[in-house]
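Protein Record: Sequence and Backbone Structure Tokens
======================================================
Tokens: labelled as protein backbone structure tokens, with as many entries as the chain has residues.
Question of interest: how does this chain fold, as expressed in backbone structure tokens?

___
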Amino acid sequence: MEITEATDGDQVQSKRTPFDLDLKSKPAGGWAGWLGPLLATGLAALLRLPYLGQPHAIIFDETYYVKDSLALLTFGHEQKVIEGADAKLLASGGENFSAIFTDGASYIVHPPVGKWIIASGEAIFGATPFGWRITIAILGILSVLITARIARRLTNSNFIGTIAGLLLALDGLHIAMSRTALLDTSLSFFALCAFGFLIIDRDTASSTGSKIWRWAMVVALGLACATKWSGIYFAAAFGILMLVWDYERRSKNHEGFGIWLTRDFLPALLMPLTIIAIYLASWVGWFRSSGGWNRNWAEENAVTSWLPNSLVSLLHYHKDMLSFHTHLVTPHSYASNPWSWPLMIRPTSFFYETNPTCGADACSQEVIPLGNPLIWWTGVIAIAVMVYFAVARRHSAALPIAVAFAAGWVPWLFFPARTTFSFYAVAFIPYTVMALALSLYFVNERVKSDKPIAWRWPALTFLLVTAALTAFFYPILTGHSISYEMWQLRMWLPTWV
């Protein structure tokens, strides 16, 4: 069939199959390229910003990151807190929060960037639930825009980009995580930015020869690693994919292995060093302090090294952190095996109260990052489709989507005994919705008719059902008080309770 794609100024015609989106023309530009993504972003804001301070509580692991972020603002490093600090902080209305801290440094197991992001909201809006959640919400909203634009660029289709953005805007896990002051949404955001820069680099390297976009990717990956160590998985996956594309480009241009080695591979060795430099820079508050955890370990233990004492102390600190992460097998009622994450078998309840605030005899108020069942359960099929097209057809959109999804999920499969939670999956949900949007396009192409809108009914029907499910589950994503019977109606699986 003959397809005409709109470009920034020309009409380009190409013969292709329903499954071939490897167009050589630029993505459709102008207002049409932004309208759908911006509409999806607006929907994301409507679902993430209202009642952001609800519940008025420190929920789940906010108990660590809210106070660590305030400590960074006050001391430059994490600090121990008094007993009952959560209640005191909530009762203070965000004022005089320094009273919750003691004199001792706190031992923490995650790097600072994600906590600095939370701290920026606290600095502007105060140490209140809204203050510590707002910047995370903004990153979640921006993630929808970025996802839509990446999907559009990957497929040269405004339709696919818009569908991907709308699906992420409607996903329950992403909504709840965007409204909670944890680190994982920041990790997901930086990894997504890196993915976008990687795709732009692939698309522009042949024509411009500039490597600015891959260095932008490196910066984003450095920030991801400085948020949570699992950013390393994305760095490895994206770096390998970048070098593979470089080699394919050199081969297509009849340039030998030596050109690839000297112009692509060897310069790429500087990228891990840059990521490490960004990571170390994120610890600037700890370096500048004298009271951070293990800050003076090298001097206190008379260690001799060619490295500065502060760096020796930080390396020892990281050795302890690594031991913590590799031996974290503490039983938890909401722990979830990584194999089950794509099916959303065991979501993590962040908050649950039964105060009679709904007008019924028995009420339930819960915040649970529960993925939209239609997105997640069909998303498994969509990812399988991406893997098939990546391997069997070397599809230029399916391959990077599959690789990015794998970077966010597969490494966790090697730690089945570790205490992990399903909300870590927020790191790979953007690639799931990209896979779904592309798969829905394939379905649409199979039923295409001469009517310009009617042929898209499979994707539009999917979106409508997804939106209905989001509306149904929205009260338990955002901590609205509902009757116990209405709460029970939303617990489709016994493992959701």
